[in-house]
Amino acid sequence: MKVSEFSGTGALIRLILRRDRLLLPIWIALPPLFVILVASAFVSLYPTAASQQTIAAQIVNGPGLVALLGPVSAPTVGALTAWRSSIFAAVIVAGANALTVIRHTRTDEETGRYELLGSGAVGRRAPLSASLVVTLGADLAIAALVTGGLVAFGLPVAGSVALGLSFAAIGWTFAAIAGVAAQLAESAGVARGIAGAIFVLFYVLRAAGDANEQSGQSWLSWLSPLGWMRLVKPFASERWGVFAIFLGAVIVLIAMAYTLSSRRDVGAGILTPRLGPARASPRLRSPLALAWRLHRLTLLAWAAMFAIYGVMVGYLAKTTADLLATNPQLANLFAHFGGASAYTDSLFTLSLTFLGWIAAAYAITATLRLQSEEVERRVDHVLATAVSRLRWATSDLALMVIGSAVVLAAFGLSAGLTYGLSTGNVGYELPRMLVATLAYLPAVWVVAGIAMALYGLVPRLSFVSWGVLGAFVLLELIGETLKVSQSILNLSPFNRVPAVLVSGVSVMPLVWLTILALVLTIVGLIGFQHRSIG
Amino acid sequence: MSVIHVENLTKSYGKTLALDKVDLEVEQGEVFGFIGPNGAGKTTTLRILLGLLHKNAGHVSVLGADPWRDAVALHRRLAYVPGDVSLWPNLSGGEVIDLLGRLRGGFDQSRRDELLERFKFDPTKPCRTYSTGNRQKVALIAAFISDVELFILDEPTLGLDPLMEAVFRDCIAEVRQAGKTVLLSSHILAEVEALCDRISIINEGTIVESGTLAELRHLTRISVSVETARPVTGLSELPGVHNVRVDGARAHFTVDAGAINRVMEHLTPFDALSLTSAPPTLEDLFLRHYELHTGDDAR
């Protein structure tokens, strides 16, 4: 490893800071904001030690929640806050770290921007080093802000530091994972896919380990960095040694990324892509066929992810029901909250809330493919042929509409089937799970409609649709705990989705949401037809 | 009948004026060169001709139709090669060629095979692995397999090596032979000179010159390099002679087209041993135009 291989790192760091001057502050600010909101919510909801004790006991005794978010390590506001915020913060921080690293390594190589830099006095390890330095800096800033915020809020210092550092640690771990993925894959999309799949794997390992802690399978959690976050035990006899595991993992990963980077050519990956067909399939003759050809693998991956999540939730619901059946004391406790069946139903309903958000994220990505086609100038090829703007845009939107139905149905089917098979009542569980899941479709389409309206009218501001989704999510997260007025809560389309399992189907909200989605989409399409392209 | 008719076309992006009262007239069956430096407004003009961009003012008709209103019907009759060809990274080159050909309304399979052969193009690789030149080939092949009336080509030889450039020129000759019309934008002057019947020069959003190459030659000077037995004197005093530089037995200068005869007479007494002259290139013409218009004629 020669020093010259790192030359130019400083200049590249400045370049990254310049290019990400808007994104970076946003993703640094999100986790601290979220954590402080959660902490204040717990304080206002459970002001007494006794009420904190009760809620912690309820959570720990419901393996469903433990699997989704992990166990609560102590009955205090600090520990509850750590429990509630860790997974969400991990999604944001790990996602932002991985995307940043890939964006400034593989994406630059793929688009040829690296050639421009590489021909200057820039060592071949400089881009990876620069992006790792920037992400480390951002992660430490997050740790500092989280710690500072919680300490200012009055929580113990040690726990605040541990929680903040655990966010930074998961972030940098994923920066390093993305660094490896960027060496393996030849395209940024595949690299992102690898990083995403690894996150899902870690989540599943942690969920399985945490849910079966009593039966001695908690070692599974030790295999997952997401598990390590919890095993640090912020606000409950902090285990600082766990950070050494994080550090060790990051060092191994970074060494791996550097080794791989010196074994390949610029632009090439370790995984070589296969050759494609010399002729297009006879079906590839319309914009819809093109959209399908381009995005079918992505859709398949999303559907698989939703299906796995469904199996997990279905299985957990069964475990919960079993536990309640064998433990009359627990069953008694849950009777207070509406009985065993009500407990599984609310577990499903809670999982569906998350799922609705993720499906909406899919729908935004699928809708904004229109924008990336336009920005990359690929749309010029298509619109210069006998394809109208309307036909092109509606083809991609059709795939989004069908795709969002497919991913949600994948969850509904797998969850309903798993739970139904375990209770021996598939005929009852499957249809109602499917209906409850698909009830989220209109709300998902509204979010996609917002993205389309923005894209059609002011394409530069399309990214605001992510902010809108974030606001809806935040509304629901705060709304469930803080007392936000109903009229503000009602701004979120997700708040209008009937909780089918708990209170049955109500059709009118779904009809209204669908109409709203349609209107937004039409507004976007009209805007798109009347503006310049590119 | 003119295939492309542009009159007073004006387009601005916010406060920047991209096109200022551009006129363009391309006749049936000609190869028309649209030339200018990068950022002059060539691509903007072409994208307006395709109905991709709004115009602010002026009149535009392509094949007798309004490109904004009648885009779909019009696009069946033309093929477009964009300047910076960007393709779908996970589609193969062959797939893109077939797709674009089909979306345009069908193509000739044997013509496709023939063009793949001539451009020495491997259609099985995913587009993300293609070089600039190979991406350009995809767009060119996809255009030339179609039986259309008009080809709009934006910097079509960018990234092609000289051998492939020759293949491209053959293709242009063939479509010209078949009576089709070509609008070709370029900043490579030799290319336009070799291919085009008529040209328009655009700079900073305005057309600065239009006409056949012959018509535009009045703007240019021939550069001459001569070796004589005795050092030449008195050249600078001759009307129509510029940029004189005498280097011992060698003299270099440029001369207006009308003054050549007089220069030859002047050189005879000095006993010319060898003489080379370079014909006016479009580049000279371009520079000369600005010299004339900025009054920088002192050299």
> Which oligomeric form is depicted?
heterodimer
The CATH class designation of the largest domain in chain B is Alpha Beta
Round the Cα radius of gyration of chain B to an integer and report it.
23 Å
Distance between the termini of chain B: 44 Å
Overall number of domains of chain A: 2
Rg calc of chain A: 24 Å
Structure explained in plain terms:
The complex is a heterodimer of chains A (534) and B (299). With 534 residues, chain A is mainly α. Chain A has two domains: 7-271, no CATH class; 284-534, no CATH class. Chain A has 24 helices and no strands. Chain A has helices spanning 9-19, 23-45, 49-61, 63-69, 77-104, 106-111, 113-118, 126-153, 157-184, 188-211, 219-222, 225-231, 242-262, 287-326, 328-336, 339-375, 378-383, 389-423, 426-438, 441-457, 464-479, 486-489, 500-503, 507-529. The longest helix of chain A has 40 residues, at 287-326. The model of chain A has no long low-confidence stretch (mean pLDDT 87). Chain B has 299 residues and is α/β, with parallel strands linked by helices. Chain B folds into two domains: 2-212, 3-Layer(aba) Sandwich (Rossmann fold), CATH 3.40.50.300; 221-279, Alpha-Beta Plaits. Helices cover 32% and strands 31% of the residues of chain B. Chain B has a six-stranded mixed beta sheet, with helices on both faces. Chain B has a four-stranded antiparallel beta sheet with strand order 11-12-10-13, with helices on both faces. In chain B, a hairpin with a 2-residue loop joins β11 and β12. Chain B starts with a strand and ends in a 5-residue tail after the last helix. Classes of the chains: A mainly alpha (534), B alpha/beta (299). Chains A and B meet through α14 and α17 of A and α2, β5 and α3 of B.
